Amino acid sequence: MSAGGVLLVAVLALPGLGAAVVAAIPADRAARLVGTVVAALTLLAAVPLAAGDRGWFAWSGAAPAVRPWHQFDVSWVPALDLRFHLGVDGVSYPLVVLTALLTLLCCGYTLWRVPAGGGSGRALVALLLVVEVGILGTFLALDLVLFFLFFEVVLLPMYAVIAGWGGEDRRRAARKFALYTLFGSVLLLVGVYVVVAAAGTADIVALTGGAGLSRNTQLFAFTLLAVAFAVKSPLWPLHSWLPDAHTQAPTVGSVVLAGVLLKMGTYGLIRVAVGVAPEGARWAAPVLGVLAVAAILVGSLVCLAQSELKRLIAYSSVGHMGFVLLGVATLTATGIQAALIGNIAHGVITGLLFFLAGAVKDRTHTGALAELSGLRETAPRLAGLLGFAAVASLGLPGLAGFWGEAFAVIAAVEVGGALWTTLGVLAAVGGALTAAYFLRLLRQVTHHRPSPAVDRLTPTLAGAEVAAWAPLVLLALAIGLAPVLVLGVAEAPVDALVEVLR
Amino acid sequence: MTTSTLLGVLLPVVPLAAGLVGLLLPPSPRGLNGDGVDVEQRARRAAITLGVAGAAGALVLAVALLATLDGPAEARTTWVDLGGLRVTLGVRLDGVAALVAVAVAAVALAVQVYSIGYLKRGPHDDVDVDHRYPPYAAQISLFTAAMLLVVVSGDLLLLLVGWEVMGLCSYLLIAHDRRLPEAPAAAMKAFLVTRVGDVGFLLGIALLGVSAGSFRIADVLAHDHASGTLTAACLLLLAGVAGKSAQFPLHTWLPDAMAGPTPISALIHAATMVAAGVYAVARLYPLFEAAPVALTVLGVLGSVTLLLGAFAATAQDDIKRVLAWSTVSQIGYMTGALAVGSPAAALFHLLTHAAFKALLFLAAGAVIHAVGTTLMSRMGGLRRSMPVTFWCTAVGLGALAGVPPLAGFWSKDGVLAVAQAAALDGEGPTPSWVGWLVWLAGLVGVAVTAWYATRLLLRTFLGETRVPLARPHDAPGTLRWPVLLLAVPAAVLGLAGFAAPFADRLQPEPLASPEHPSDLLPAEPLVHLTPSIVLPVALLLLGAGLAWARWRRDPAADPAAALGPLRPVFAAAFRLDDVQHALVVRPVRALARAVRAGDERVVDGAVEGSGRAASGLGAGLAVLHRAALPRAAAGVLAGALLIGLAAVLIGGTA
Fold this sequence. Notes:
- The structure holds 2 protein chains of 2 kinds.
- Chain A is mainly alpha-helical.
- Helices cover 75% and strands 3% of the residues of chain A.
- Chain B has 3 domains: 1-183 and 247-288, no CATH class; 291-509 and 525-571, no CATH class; 582-653, no CATH class.
- In chain B, helix 13 (292-314) packs antiparallel against helix 14 and helix 14 packs antiparallel against helix 18.
- The interface between A and B is large, with 65 and 56 residues.
């Protein structure tokens, strides 16, 4: 087995085994510490995946559209022709690193503070690690059935995180999350079945490009897969599980949920739905584009009338994922690259926003915007960071959020024609609305005289908080200044994908 | 990379570094136990050092650039390549960029020095005014860096970075003063209104970039765009320009931005923000020249803005608001000059305006510092107690109104001359009626400007004192020196228009192409000494004389009383704020509420409803399955019978 293969397996095995170890250690704090170390090791294993010869497929005659840098491919259930096929390329690599990083930050944060509400800290860390296995597996799987399995692994531990450590209305929110996304999973299962049955293989490398699938099969499969991923992303109007889940989930749950869990949907859309059924993608692109822009506008308008901090950030995710989906829907290299960097930027920035919202809520014991004001008077650092995150999220050029949103608009303009130009214009207007609701948020929360809830705050930040937030702040700045960090690795695979879309 | 391009790269980087480091200083020592005051003093000193060093470094670099640059220069590297659309990271330098950079850096340095004294805890301050000095100074540095980035940028997207970071910095700085309840709303308005304009700016950049396949300014200028695309793109860019440069109808944020500290007003009005829009159009002028429709629109908007700002300035009582509206009006002159085909005249006025408007704001700050109010109805008679401030303000107002030979006279005359040429001789890219519009609006503007400038001077410095405070006095050194030094260019910069090295630098770099050999085009003179110069001078005397005559009759009364019933309309700036509120803000808010309700009741309602329906159905079926033994037994028998029947039927047919 090659070194890359070892790393691929390690990235999944480490958190998997770690979760079991953490669950077995009786001492709570020691278990959390072990969990954090495991998460750190996972990140250490994930980062060097970028190393290695990336051009090894270039010389072969018929290069497939997916050209993994490293692969791990063993027969798994021979009778059903199932293979345990993992691989990483420029589309998945940034997401893998982001997942490992956010999990580490969440575990480290849990080391400092376990959310009130019942469960033990070590159970929470174990569940976070299981969620990590599922998400990483989804990004790494190159076999459709395996992809589906990992996709499902995430569901129940996330349900438990929300139901075990969430806010007051957590059970209802967790149930809604689980049932709604399960509905999406059923469609995904059917879609996977349709594809595998028609093509006779579940290998994503072989399937990409729609080889061997008739047009009708592609249309049918794309519809099923796209709806399934739209639930996860979430795409308006299939988003309504998200605000409830976010509002009730504990801080670390929200961070993982917004930061990387949603990306399973957009990643699946690019890699599986568009890749496997390109004909279907072309057919459905206008619908997808219209819904994406509707998501942008509806998401930002709802935010403009929102009265709860975490709910507002949750709805802002709907808008931001709308930009990502608009980028995908254009089916151009520009648009898909915009979607990839938008994905990463949203994970970094919204992860930070949820951390900060959690910090505000933990300190003031309220998330109602009407009860928060004057944060910059009593906690200037926290207010400054909230301001930074909000400004990054509204897509200020020079910070990470800008590239995805601006180039989703530019890609729509590039496609041209009345429909896509209109979509581009509306999306740009959505950008202005995004600024409006974030400025409203900042004006309410940070300016004016301190409200009673805010007045008793102290300006200090805990070391664990700074440690958890600093990497995200730096990443938001670094990706904004050097988008090549994400797009440098994505260029070749996106070009290859767009090639088969033609 | 040559010396010039290296200087150009460093130009935004130096203040950026000062700003980023400054942001890391402790923002507020309040709540730190022990030596809080000590920490505060130390942080303040560090912030002052960083801020002044950043601005001074930028000024040195800009002057060096001006001295070394002997022709257009460019340096670039690929920033990122998104699916064939290349974004470059680079600088594009020419004489205009160097001159504007000098103006930006000079004003920034003046503002940094001035702020040291202006944001100092005074004996009358009940709340600690300045314990957030470090972020304040750092934000000024960022603001400067962003504007310098706009000035030197060689790529449209890089320009957009500076463009929007400026919007952010204006937002942060306008909201700085914690004692003003209206400051947060004003800050939000400034960012949001300009951001609405930037929707158009981004789309315009998108159209141009997609059309040219690159966002590099040189590529965009060189590309042969389809005329429809070009017109659409230029019109869209104008939306962003109108937002940043406070042109009708996106001018509404500027007067409210007076809630920011006075040095910030000087920064926003003189060298950054409002200048950026005019500069961007001048930078992309070849595109606009090829899209006369866009220039026509610009001319109409500029003329409207010119008169709107001038008339609104006549009725304000707040000294800063008079100056704010005068900025709106003066930017109208610049856009007007652009519309009639003379970016050089626009840039000349931009530079002189930067000098005299910075001077006016900083002098007004000295007055406000001394008397503790911004209302002219509570000032008066300050000439004796504040002679330095009086004379500096007089120079600034003279330049603003266009009193010869002060700076504003020459540059405004330059604008009027090109407008006149466009009107009478049909020169310029736009139809001659645009020239007429700009020319007439400019001439009326001269009289109105003279009127309100005179009023400001009389109300503030002459007559009987209405000052509540016992002894107003000239400001301390940190406030006085920037004002004094700015008075020099405000007085004499106009004469630079006669100097060939200056005038040549302001002329647009001709596109060297075989069809248009650049040496055949005679350079247009910046300063026009023709008989028509009498006209603006006469109008100036008329406006100033009317205000003075009114004041002579009753020195205690406000000359604005002469406006009669129009006074409240002018004071409210034709109620365009209310129009904006009624047409945009309220509908958007109502729409947001409706969408939220719809999303929660309809979209989520359907989901919740399906859940409830499923559990209801389940409960119903469960009830059916709970039955007493006889009924259950009957059910089982009936079922068995049905299955048997089915088996017989299916088996029989098979």
